Amino acid sequence: MTTQFIDNKTAAQEYIDSVFAQVKAKNGHQAEFLQAVEEIFLSLVPVFEQHPEYIENNILSRIVEPDRIVSFRVAWQDDNNQVQVNRGYRVQFNNVVGPYKGGLRFHPTVNESIMKFLAFEQIFKNSLTGQPIGGGKGGSDFNPKGKSNSEIMRFCQAFMTELYRHIGPDVDVPAGDIGVGGREIGYLYGQYKRIRGAYEAGVLTGKTPGYGGSLARKEATGYGLVYFVEQMLLEKKESFLNKTVVVSGSGNVAIYAIEKLQHFGAKVVSCSDSNGYIYDPEGIDLKLVKEIKEVKGDRIKTYVDYRPSATYTEGCTGIWTIPCDIALPCATQNEIDGDSARTLIANGVKFVAEGANMPSNLEAINLFLENDVYFGPAKAANAGGVAVSALEMAQNSGRNYWSFQEVDEKLNNIMKSIYTNSKEAAEKYGYPGNLVVGSNIAGFVKVANGMLTEGVY
Fold first, then answer.
1. Which CATH superfamily is domain 220-381 in?
2. pLDDT tens digits, 55-112
3. Which is catalytic among the residues 137, 218, 293, 446?
4. Considering only CA atoms, which of 424, 421, 447, 390 is closest in space to residue 123?
5. Is 449 annotated as a binding residue?
6. pLDDT digits (tens, 9 = 90+) for 388-414
7. Which of 258, 327, 331, 434 could form a disulfide with 248 if both were Cys (CB 3.0 to 4.6 A apart)?
């Protein structure tokens, strides 16, 4: 295509529409991936109006096709000496900014579409952090729930035996995600070291502090989310003090978001797991939640056994019927749909920020934007985890070990920069106050410019 065809908005939109049509034709069965692509594409019309060189070099068609997708069999033996078989994935999407970087997810819902959507989002999230990391994601349909430590160890060893040849400190650096915590990372890294015969600490992040891991990594996504929301509140000349907050989830993101929210004076009244949610109008007892989830590994419904002020409800969608000032979805993708968004809006929500990956569908996002709810999208608001993963990589490379306070301060500064860059990009391209457009553009432009400098390959 040449510049004579892109002198107006219609032509830029036509280019974007034509590329999305091609993506749908190739990936029509991958709903999650198509949703992620459409959400990005909707923001990019003003960018292509100002940058015809992106069309001339067909940047969109190149950026939506992964560099490679690795799919492999993982055969392992359970405690009954029965051979089990799972499928593993690693999607290496884009390494223009730095080595592929993104977590590993062990969950029965894992498939190629989910891996591609997560890896695609990771490109722009990682770009926003300002750290030298590209976008990737991986995982398996293995379910660690109900498995013994020995079974999880054998699975992780089998998984890494297949994955190791595709990763490295300067090639691809996985981390944890749903179902993959410090225990799993330890087993994965131990197997990598055995195979490679070398101490390459930078090949995985999320390691145990003191053994190549970074302090504040466990807290990073939750803390980072709250630091981002703090900037949103400051923009509106408000604070967390006395705000009622609904948080979904009860993993690391939710727990440490609650911890930081309570530190800032907010009143958090809910959390959830995949079975249902608790509502505690007196405020969540975080010590109790940590005991249930981190020590006992129990279901969140047991919370009500200790707190007479709380109620438990089966199913998760009802959590968004709780009136609140701030809603922070921290559980999983597409947990807020149009109906939930309408209920939140009717009940007076003013701020929504995403702690999970793509927890609001497009209808919900549009409703928030149309009703003046200040909305923080995932690729900006939940970038704290990967930001500290990049800081872990830096510590590994320099043989350094920073204090919790040092890492936390760097994290806070990164989240402030992400907010500022997203806000300024939205203003520059004609969408003031729209952090969805701003974060998409800020993340995209950096990667697109890198692809231009590298030429076509």
1. NAD(P)-binding Rossmann-like Domain (3.40.50.720)
2. 999 999 999 999 999 999 999 999 999 999 999 999 999 999 999 999 999 999 999 9
3. 137
4. 447
5. no
6. 999 999 999 999 999 999 999 999 999
7. 331
